[in-house]
Design goal:
single chain, 15 helices, 39% helix
Length: 472
């Protein structure tokens, strides 16, 4: 079963945890005259979230029934159900005294490298996607330290035509420079409907007077949908990520305890970062360290003085066509993108070819991996037609991205894919060069203390040793 983020979760373990919290079997939320003894996997995830907020069993039942009746939960795998008998049988098979892990993963290598951000809420209000750097142990070295020293020197905040306020380079910004590293002004745990509004309001009420004043200067979404201004501002300006169980804050400022569970989902509003505007081919990248919750902005390319600094608001690992990107931005953030990528027919032609190539090389769920993207050839059920064609496609993928001037983590992944396929063909020396190119890109996107860069260094050392053995 796939969880909200494409990372597999264990529904039996989640139900066991809910039973522990409520003292009731979650199956009992369903009405007797409906489809008793059946819950979809999505509904189990919703109930699990409700239980983590401290809501009563009766409140969770009412909220779930309300969502079902209003058809606000769309489960693409609605036929995938978990029955009461399945749960009881699984509990009998669980070793006595063992504790169920509510976030037990399937074999998804990319999940350890980059965890996909929360993609949507039930009512189409979008939260910006953000890359995630895996967190270290509490007390260990952390790659991101809060720093605003360079921000005032690098950035000028001013009006961007048709976009509102934005970041502009006050001087030439070198490639790889860390422009800003900041903690979220306001953060909530697992920000899904229907408790989202309450969580955001609780977090806002805990802010100092100065922070509240700054929060209220930010722009709300254009369409409030009857929501209050605080929620509208949060919806329009927040980012989402998956936090480690070692999240240093321990408690979120909405009052919800972490309770030690792994992969708690967070959504936060970062005071300065929230002013960054979107571009489908941005010049900067924003990611959050899963252990500290600190977000950093780095320049992926040299940014000349006077140029607007931009990020991408959503994952675009499958090279979506312009009409799909525009619809996504219009529904989520209520604007039409007029960036160079959306305005160029030539770029759209190139993106169509990139879309074909990546669909042949990597499954969608692992295309976001910064270091080791899982390839289709890793799937034992995948029938590769021709190894030479696969390698040729990987090399074309890198070459086309270079010709189109595409930078950042995406081309780093392209180099990683090509390196893996070159090494498979015993072209270790060439593979090593591609891997070094990927590491150079990760250095500029995430910094030399990041887990991405460190793992890349280990992979390079392994290949260098292999090449040395071959040359003996």
């Amino acid at each position: 079963m796939g969880g909200r983020n494409g990372i597999q979760t264990n529904p039996v373990a989640m139900i066991a945890k809910m039973h522990e919290r409520w003292g009731r079997d979650p199956i009992e939320v369903l009405p007797e005259n409906g489809r008793p003894e059946e819950l979809t996997h999505h509904q189990i995830e919703e109930l699990y979230f409700f239980s983590s907020t401290g809501i009563t069993f009766a409140g969770a039942k009412a909220a779930l029934m309300d969502q079902i009746s209003k058809r606000r939960i769309h489960d693409p795998k609605a036929e995938l159900v978990v029955t009461g008998n399945m749960i009881r049988k699984a509990r009998q098979l669980q070793p006595r005294g063992s504790r169920a892990d509510p976030h037990e993963h399937g074999v998804v290598p990319a999940a350890a490298i980059k965890k996909a951000a929360v993609k949507t809420t039930a009512t189409r209000t979008r939260t910006k996607h953000v890359a995630v750097s895996p967190g270290g142990r509490r007390g260990g070295p952390q790659p991101y330290q809060e720093s605003t020293d360079q921000f005032d020197a690098y950035i000028e905040i001013k009006e961007a035509e048709g976009k509102g306020r934005g970041w502009f380079a006050a001087q030439d910004i070198p490639q790889g420079a860390q422009i800003l590293a900041e903690k979220p002004l306001l953060k909530v745990q697992r920000p899904f409907q229907p408790t989202r509004e309450l969580a955001v309001e609780n977090a806002f009420n805990r802010l100092s007077r100065e922070k509240k004043a700054h929060f209220l200067t930010l722009s709300p979404s254009d369409n409030l949908h009857g929501k209050n201004r605080i929620l509208a501002i949060f919806n329009a300006n927040s980012f989402a990520w998956d936090a480690d169980g070692d999240d240093i804050d321990g408690n979120d400022n909405d009052g919800n305890d972490n309770d030690g569970e792994q992969q708690q989902q967070r959504s936060g509003l970062f005071a300065r970062t929230s002013l960054l505007n979107h571009d489908c081919q941005p010049n900067a990248i924003f990611d959050v360290h899963a252990g500290t919750g600190i977000g950093q902005v780095r320049a992926m390319v040299p940014i000349p003085r006077g140029t607007e600094v931009t990020i991408r608001y959503f994952d675009d690992e499958d090279w979506a066509p312009a009409r799909q990107r525009q619809r996504h931005l219009r529904e989520g953030w209520h604007f039409d993108c007029a960036c160079a990528t959306c305005s160029s027919g030539e770029r759209e032609t190139a993106r169509a070819r990139l879309r074909e190539l990546i669909s042949e090389l990597a499954p969608l769920r692992t295309r976001s991996s910064h270091v080791n993207p899982e390839l289709r050839i890793d799937d034992p059920e995948y029938e590769e037609e021709n190894r030479e064609t696969t390698l040729r496609n990987a090399l074309e993928y890198v070459d086309l991205m270079n010709r189109e001037g595409i930078t950042g983590a995406r081309i780093g992944r392209a180099y990683n894919i090509a390196a893996k396929l070159l090494v498979r063909e015993e072209r270790v020396g060439e593979g090593l060069e591609y891997l070094r190119a990927a590491q150079w890109i990760n250095l500029h996107c995430f910094g030399e203390r990041s887990s991405h860069f460190q793992e890349q260094a280990k992979n390079i050392a392994d290949l260098e040793a292999k090449l040395s053995e071959q040359e003996k």
